[in-house]
Amino acid sequence: KAGVTQTPRYLIKTRGQQVTLSCSPISGHRSVSWYQQTPGQGLQFLFEYFSETQRNKGNFPGRFSGRQFSNSRSEMNVSTLELGDSALYLCASSLDRDRGNTEAFFGQGTRLTVV
Amino acid sequence: GQSLEQPSEVTAVEGAIVQINCTYQTSGFYGLSWYQQHDGGAPTFLSYNALDGLEETGRFSSFLSRSDSYGYLLLQELQMKDSASYFCAVRSSSGGSYIPTFGRGTSLIVHP
Question: How far, in Å, CA of A101 to CA of A79, rounded?
Fold first, then answer.
């Protein structure tokens, strides 16, 4: 079956602009999480959506937002982009069998560069 | 808050055994997971330990000691393709939320 699909793969934006990233989870997975990965900070949790509701949220400013649609596809939006937002943004989907288990399937990510 | 500590880099030779340690500080601990990520690739789930002890999956094993807040990933019969970054991760509760936290990653370099 198809894996997690993220689009676009690469993106270059200018400071102050906004950006929307898309994620299609594995069929049947209702939980979608977003992460920011940078060399300096590693993998940091942004938020998690389950059944169109934000269930958990990491420690990021309000410029970072997301949503999930009825088909479980998810989007994340970053407004008023800053240079420090340059990162690999990863989406992960899971079956959500067990809250303790972080088993998740990651997409290839969107490489965002802010100039 | 939650924090995980793991070595930044480990080197080994092909065919050897290597252990990557992870210590954590967290509240409402539910379990420890391990992921592998090759350069330019997506993280891939390797294992999950909710209870103390060793879990074996082929050449990879993962161990957890909840009383010591410690776990490790053991890779046996190392192959060149095992060169990658390895992350430990916990999911813990905080104020009603369940936040996954990842370690900074250990870069494993396998030499021929």
Answer: 31
